[in-house]
Amino acid sequence: MHRNITKGMWILLCCILTTLLAGCLPADEKATENHQDPDLVLNQYFDALSKQDYDTMVKLYGGDYESLIGNNPSVAKDDYKKLFENYCTINGGNIVKIDTIIEKTKISDEEYIYKLSFKYLDDTSFENRKQIEYTVKKIDDSFKVMELPPYIP
């Protein structure tokens, strides 16, 4: 009987360890898996913004860079990470997080429009809870956020 309890505990321990290790996928693999869900992509984009993780933002962004390039002539046109960083730290882009997803509209299986309100990282309201629309669109089999972070000149 003592042996059966030990085997049972060993099996339980192995199950727990397997479950814990499954949660240890590298962040890039998790992000890749989730590029099929527009809600997750939107949340990952703004989570990356709040952490100033510009590499991840570049991966999740599907819009154009023309305004960023125009406002940062000293930055290489293909240095998307630096363009995002400058936008958020110099050019008037705001580092915020989602406060509320007010509305989600499905345009098609490949495009969604979200109406969002934001808050600053210190949890104060951004622009008196101003509502801003964001589009999440499927591009090359992955959803991407089409707009830059909120801008205040």
UniProtKB/TrEMBL annotation:
UniProt organism field: Brevibacillus antibioticus
Name of this chain's protein: DUF3887 domain-containing protein
Signal peptide: 1-27
SUPFAM superfamilies assigned to the protein according to its UniProt record, in alphabetical order: NTF2-like
UniProt keyword annotations, A-Z: Signal
